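Example for tutorial group B:
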């Protein structure tokens, strides 16, 4: 397993176009906690801290990029776009493109249960990889590597399943602008119990900004958040 990892990691470096000065950063980025938990001496050696760092770096890279690129977009539009890019669906798709799962140190149990293709593991590993590049070099190097992969996704977000997280975008915007949390309220229901339709509004500052209808409360809330964002963007 370890021999295979070392061999495969060299192939990964060719794909990302970066060569590590300190290979321990690379190994740390590729080590899932399930693997380190199997080895007593490496119990705390995994990619979770690099994932935390990489998430912050990718957030800054993306914010800086879309701020410069989309000068005419409103704050709400930029917040929505950033939330869609800085997401598990996008990061896991990039990771799948470079077959990142094939280079990870995983426990046997995780491998058997399909861990090499699990979106959460792949997305976290991509964040950790960017964090590792930052630690091994600098911000601008990490930025160049990250953008090489992000640029191919930014204009194709609608093709990536799961990027339309309207509630999260709305919450971030309302908290940042008004220092409040958006409130969702059930306006009513229609239809029999087995085929019920929910109508929900989202509001803050005693004003309704969006109304949504759906077969579940969650779906109705998402549609209400989407309508609110569209109104704010106008």
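The residue assignment follows.
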């Amino acid at each position: 397993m370890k021999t295979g990892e070392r061999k495969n990691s060299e192939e990964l470096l060719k794909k990302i176009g970066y060569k590590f000065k300190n290979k321990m950063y690379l190994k740390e980025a590729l080590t899932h906690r399930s693997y380190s938990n199997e080895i007593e001496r490496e119990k705390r050696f995994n990619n979770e801290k690099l994932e935390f760092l990489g998430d912050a770096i990718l957030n800054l890279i993306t914010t800086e990029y879309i701020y410069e690129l989309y000068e005419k977009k409103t704050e709400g539009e930029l917040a929505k776009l950033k939330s869609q890019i800085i997401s598990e669906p996008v990061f896991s798709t990039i990771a799948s493109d470079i077959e990142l799962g094939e280079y990870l140190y995983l426990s046997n149990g995780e491998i058997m249960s399909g861990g090499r293709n699990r979106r959460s593991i792949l997305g976290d590993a991509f964040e950790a990889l960017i964090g590792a590049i930052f630690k091994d070099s600098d911000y601008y190097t990490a930025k160049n590597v990250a953008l090489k992969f992000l640029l191919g996704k930014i204009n194709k977000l609608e093709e990536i399943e799961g990027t339309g997280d309207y509630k999260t975008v709305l919450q971030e915007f309302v908290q940042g602008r008004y220092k409040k949390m958006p409130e969702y309220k059930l306006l009513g229901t229609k239809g029999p119990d087995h085929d019920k339709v929910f109508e929900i509004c989202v509001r803050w500052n005693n004003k309704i900004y969006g109304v949504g209808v759906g077969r579940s409360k969650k779906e109705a809330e998402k549609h209400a958040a989407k309508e609110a964002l569209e109104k704010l963007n106008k």
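Confidence is low (pLDDT under 50) at residues 1-7. Compare this with the pattern of hydrophobic and polar residues in the output above.
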